Amino acid sequence: MDCGMVSRIFPALIFALVLGALAGCKSMGGGTPAGQAQVTVSGVSEAQIETKAEEVFYRHGFEFRGSGNSRMEFERPGGTMSNILYGNWQENDVTTRVTLFVVPKGPLTYDLRVRSMAVRRTFGGDEDTQLFDIQGTKYGVILKKIAKELAEENPG
Known about the structure:
It is built from four helices and six strands. By secondary structure, the protein is α+β, with helices and mostly antiparallel strands.
């Protein structure tokens, strides 16, 4: 290969890699967002789901932040690497925020879905800065635990 060909291919290759990385960062709506976890639970009420979700997320280090409109918010401090890359090096201001959506599918049947993201506390601002979505599939373990415990406590 000559140098002229390499100099034309290399920028195109870099452009394609960057474009591919950016395209994979957002889901395009409809159904379950790409990379987000989901389970279906039956035979339980929304109140039972909320109680169990709060218990299970707490056991995984999350603090309950509030609920409303069939969703629940949980947070836990981000890791050291997140603070170094995205936050304040002197304070722990990067947080992992998980939103649990409780989607009615029928009588006593619900889909549980999560959306997770890293956020940085905004000093003096009204809203936190959303840094990036976290692959929600890692929260599938928590959703499965919620579903399993609900099924064990409410057989039938």
